[in-house]
Write a structure and sequence with these properties.
With 369 residues, this protein is of the alpha/beta class. Helices cover 40% and strands 15% of the residues. The chain contains twelve helices and 14 strands. The chain is globular and about 70 Å long. The two termini are 39 Å apart. Bound molecules: 5-S-methyl-1-O-phosphono-5-thio-D-ribulose (MRU). 5-S-methyl-1-O-phosphono-5-thio-D-ribulose binds at residues 44-47, 165-167, 171, 177, 204, 242-245, 255-256, 321. The site of 5-S-methyl-1-O-phosphono-5-thio-D-ribulose has 17 residues, from helix 2 and strand 9.
Length: 369
């Protein structure tokens, strides 16, 4: 099932707030609809958010009634700002918006000032935007496969793997990132068992990862987030693998809140801690985790999980959606361009030089530092 689909000039998304109870699709027609769906978390997961934002710009491109390239680009810029603001921590949104705006600006049909070239045609310009959005979606599908192949080699047969949040097909344009690794290892015949963190407060683990892994037939057990420590102490976790929402140039990783404490626990117990993400999640302009802005979400998510009140009305709440894990706690960063093991400024910079497709083809290429 594709959680996001561009069809006949509208965007269909699977409303993830209703899962697993109901599989209902929403039709989005404007960039405002898209920003609203992102804020409500009807669509989520850093790579999928990038794809969704790209199609949000395609909607803006189609709806604009501007008559000149300049005015049309202004409308797109405005929509881009709205989309980036809807989910500031996930860098894939800003990355995809920049990429689509770049394609809109360099569209061949756009007249170049002073060159005497071309008459701007809105239909060509709109097609260029939709093409770029489609390219982002299909590149992410390929990136997921490369990550899955590479990462699956790290998981031994009979491994008990702990994961947090949701990083599967519901969070990406393909088989997933961390979850794609798990599913690839399972499909290759390894007897993998997964500990799935429920992932407070929005329960992406319980609602989405459990749903996806069960559909895939991967053996799994759902645990409360607070169980991880005792599982590791008993020797019941062989590896932790998670995704990422933004990776700083030095390898620090912002991911769903709760990730950092898992990394500390894994370090304490000598359990390998892996992060899987496409290179599009690396923010090379962000020097370290200290520079990552973590969004604070609605207190209602904590006060009323699944709509059920669990605290006295008016209780003060802190609800940061993400936390930052320092690179020093990460055993390897698994990307579509190879592994950074351990992740640091040099090993991550080297990944940038690898062309798409090269990492998977080499059967385990590594950018060791
Ligand atoms: O708030 P969400 O559900 O969008 O959370 C983001 C995530 O899906 C995770 O943090 C994930 O690990 C990275 S995206 C594959």
């Amino acid at each position: 099932m594709k959680p996001v689909e561009w069809r006949d000039g509208v965007l269909r998304i699977l409303d993830q707030t209703r899962l697993p109870a109901e599989e209902r699709f929403m039709v989005l027609r404007t960039p405002e609809d898209v920003a609203g769906a992102i804020r409500a978390m009807a669509v989520r997961g850093a790579p999928l958010l990038g794809i969704t934002a790209a199609f949000g710009l395609a909607l803006a491109a189609n709806r604009s009634d501007a008559r000149s390239a300049k005015a049309w680009l202004r409308d797109l810029d405005r929509a881009g700002r709205l989309l980036v603001a809807s989910r500031p921590t996930a860098v894939n949104v800003a990355w995809a918006v920049d990429r689509v705006l770049g394609a809109a600006r360099s569209d061949d049909s756009a007249p170049t000032p002073g060159s005497g070239r071309g008459t701007w045609r809105v239909d060509d310009a709109r097609r260029a935007v939709a093409r770029e959005a489609q390219a982002i979606a299909s590149e992410d599908e390929t990136a997921c496969l490369a990550i899955a192949r590479l990462g699956a080699e790290l998981l031994p047969d009979r491994a008990n793997v702990l994961t947090h949040c949701n990083t599967g097909a519901l969070a990406t344009g393909g088989v997933g990132t961390a979850q794609g690794v798990i599913v690839a290892a399972h499909r290759s015949g390894k007897r993998i068992h997964v500990w799935v963190d429920e992932t407070r407060p929005v329960l992406q683990g319980a609602r989405l990862t459990a749903w996806e892994l069960r559909r895939e037939g991967v053996p799994m057990t759902l645990v409360a987030d607070t169980v991880a420590g005792s599982l590791m102490a008993k020797g019941s976790v062989d590896a932790v693998i998670v995704g990422a929402d933004r990776i700083a140039a030095n390898g620090d990783v912002a991911n769903k809140v709760g990730t950092y404490q898992l990394a500390v626990l894994a370090h304490h117990h000598g359990v390998p801690f892996y992060v899987a993400a496409p290179l599009s999640t690396v923010d090379f302009t962000c020097p370290s985790g200290l520079d990552i802005v973590v969004e604070e979400r609605d207190p209602e998510e904590v006060l009323r999980p699944s709509g059920i009140p669990i605290a006295p009305p008016g209780t003060p709440v802190a609800n940061p959606a993400f936390d930052v894990t320092p690179a020093g706690l990460i055993s390897a960063l698994i990307t579509d361009r190879g592994m950074a093991r351990p992740p640091d400024r040099a090993s991550i910079r080297r990944l940038r030089k690898v062309r798409p497709g090269e990492a998977a083809g080499s059967g385990g290429w590594e950018a060791a530092s």
